[in-house]
Amino acid sequence: MKPINVGLLGIGTVGGGTWTVLKRNEEEITRRAGRPIRISHVADRNLELARSVTGGNAKVTDDAYAVVADPEVDIVVELIGGYTVAKDLVLKAIENGKHVVTANKALLAVHGNEIFAAAQKKGVMVAFEAAVAGGIPIIKALREGLSANRIQWLAGIINGTTNFILSEMRDKGLAFADVLAEAQRLGYAEADPTFDIEGVDAAHKATIMSAIAFGIPMQFDKAHIEGISKLDAADIKYAEELGYRIKLLGIAKRRANGVELRVHPTLIPSKRLIANVEGAMNAVLVWGDAVGATLYYGKGAGAEPTASAVIADLVDVTRLHTADPLNRVPHLAFQPDQMSDLAILPMAEVETAYYLRLTAADKPGVLADITRILADRAISIDAMLQKEPAEGQSQTDVVILTHVAKEKDVDAAIARIESLDSISGKVTRIRMEELNG
Asked: What is the pLDDT along the chain (437 residues), one digit of tens a residue?
């Protein structure tokens, strides 16, 4: 049977992994897809690298537009990243009637609505399993495996760099800056780690998952994003004492009046499976009304884990290549004319529990003042930890865990607590999730 021809844009880490796995498992993949899948045209600025990887078994160019214009190419795989050139290339490929497979979470989170609309109009597929959580098939689970469910919420450790840093901070009691430097030395963190440590990468992925889970458009600009760069080692230690671990989570929750979409450090009970995901691993917990909790765990990055997801998409597209476009799985799981207009809720309306750490004067009446302020905003206390002041010190750390409260009420209470003469500096606030349904 005639092979499906693939045009590969970028043959770096993931592109090279895709070439390697496709060659190594060629027979198995052909048996699954029903016809051979071969990379026939490769574009990369490093021609020497491209020739070295392909070994003369594909056309090689440094002009990506030549690949998307190649009449022999059936599917374009976009692995160059970024928002600008990648967007132009993807839209051009769609315009030329080619299916697209991409690992570009930033592109989809920001421009996905436009890209999916163009693909729908042209009758081609855009597949993106590799855009979220590397080799973990979370997109397929949300789009297909859980399609009987009304998904209530999902929460994911979806950035390996930050999870590695938090694991090391907890295990070794080190400061954030020290662990970041170590992560960069080991290759877990980029030279410029901003997208990872400030939560942007996780927010791209959470945006994509929320759209599929709830049948809403991509709304990255509405996501609340908070990273781990300001996290103090003391809070990781106190969390551990109280039976919790801190993870950077991407969270999406369906509420009656909208959707919560947020990325931030989060206290999770240490007995939860997801709290024990360590190092650079990823995990996503999804709660559906019929199935309950399901957990997806594995490598969230790397050449071959991500290539696994890219090739799974190539197999899917190959199987459905000749299918009626109306009978394919919709890009965002729901039929395009059945998308919901549920709004993304402002952070002030989010409801969760909170960890509050404050530096208070060690004298009578201070805790009474704090609990009165919390009570005035209907915030009830679940647990409290007060440390003995160091010798010769008149101030000490007080840690409070609250029951579920509204963010705007907690904001107001924190402002009042910080204005007390007995409180020194800012109150540290970290959100908490039980993740038990």
From this structure: 799 999 999 999 999 999 999 999 999 999 999 999 999 999 999 999 999 999 999 999 999 999 999 999 999 999 999 989 999 999 999 999 999 999 999 999 999 999 999 999 999 999 999 999 999 999 999 999 999 999 999 999 999 999 999 999 999 999 999 999 999 998 888 889 999 999 999 999 999 999 999 999 999 999 999 999 999 999 999 999 999 999 999 999 999 999 999 999 999 999 999 999 999 999 999 999 999 999 999 999 999 999 999 999 999 999 988 778 878 888 888 888 899 989 999 999 999 999 999 999 988 899 999 999 999 999 999 999 988 887 778 899 999 999 999 999 999 999 999 999 999 999 999 999 999 97
- CATH 3.30.70.260 describes domain 350-432: yes
Distance from C-alpha of 309 to C-alpha of 240, rounded to nearest angstrom: 35
Please state the domain extents for the chain: 4-135+303-338, 138-299, 350-432
**Of 259, 258, 275, which Cα lies nearest the Cα of 267?**
275
Nearest to 212 by CA among 94, 135, 281, 128: 128
- Catalytic residue of the set 98, 205, 247, 253: 205
Query: DSSP 3-state assignment of 344?
Result: strand
Fold of 138-299: Dihydrodipicolinate Reductase; domain 2 (3.30.360)
Amino acid found at 39? I
pTM for the structure as a whole: 0.96
Q: Which CATH number fits domain 4-135+303-338: 3.40.50.880, 3.40.50.720, 3.40.50.510, 3.10.150.10?
A: 3.40.50.720
**Coil, helix or strand at residue 130:** helix
Q: What are the angstrom distances between the C-alpha of 326 and each of 218, 297, 323, 329?
A: 21, 32, 8, 8
Residue 205: active-site member:
yes
